[in-house]
Amino acid sequence: MTRGALWLGAVAVAALLALPAVLNSYGVTVFIFIFFYGYLGQAWNILGGYGGQLSAGHAAFVGVGAYTTTLLSMHWGLSPWIGMLVAGVLAAGLGAIIGSLGFRFGLRGFYFVLLTVAFAEVCRIVTLNTDAMGGALGLYITFTGNPWHLQFQDSRAYYYLALALMLLATGVVAVLERSRLGAYLLAIREDEDAAEALGVDTFRYKLCAIVLSAFLTGLGGAFYANYLFSLQPNAVFGIPLSVDIIIRPVVGGAGTLLGPLLGSLILSPLAEVARIYFTRPGWTGLHLVVYGLLLISVVLFLPQGAYPHLRSAWTRRHANDA
Known about the structure:
It is a single chain. The protein is mainly α. It has one domain (3-321): ABC transporter involved in vitamin B12 uptake, BtuC (Orthogonal Bundle), CATH 1.10.3470. Helices cover 75% and strands 1% of the residues. The chain contains 14 helices and two strands. The chain has a two-stranded antiparallel ribbon.
């Protein structure tokens, strides 16, 4: 990363830190979702973007994180700040199970996608039918406004927490890009058979990717629960949430550092507009249709995503100026 890019990043972070001072409460809420989905997209990007292992069941890790944190708080009085780490570990454990089954048996592409969807559906059905987890009615968190319970009176606190999570995930991916693990994941993504022939332990590194991705996603689930104060199995384990996670890095540019963030900056406000205007009876799920059309457009016209296209255009412009 060049010195100019570092300065630009520092200015962008400083601007985001100062932004709540000029935003109203609604604007703060929109940016919270931009950061939150940028974070989840960045977590997915480790496995799907860099590792090339397409997961369509990342909602399972969100759900595990959300329910674990909430249940530990409700029944054991454990602070969500601590429960968040437990949630991340359990989500990573689920990721290890999925990865061990899928990668050990050589599942790739469409078959691995089906495996991840199946696990998310199993989690959803089990939660729906378990009274101790709230069943179909879900769980509702009593708001106390106690920061130790990850609850704040001022929504700007959630803004800064979501921003911190997004920066954390981006920092992890930045380190990953420059590590041996990142290099091996890219080799696996480009040609797994060739990587194996060169001596890369593909099972080990793919397993590392899914465990790390699941851990970060589980942390995001803890934030999700304590920001919305309610959990329903169909919402936190459902395919629509997995689609919301996947489409951010795909639109922004999977396998790039800033792609998921750009994708969230594009899609999260669009999702908010869809929520406002497409919530009439009979219009349920219409925002997914909008997502589908946008995804088709990206595949046709920007197959690498928006960020690689903008980066190439910027490089060409500077080359012409020189």
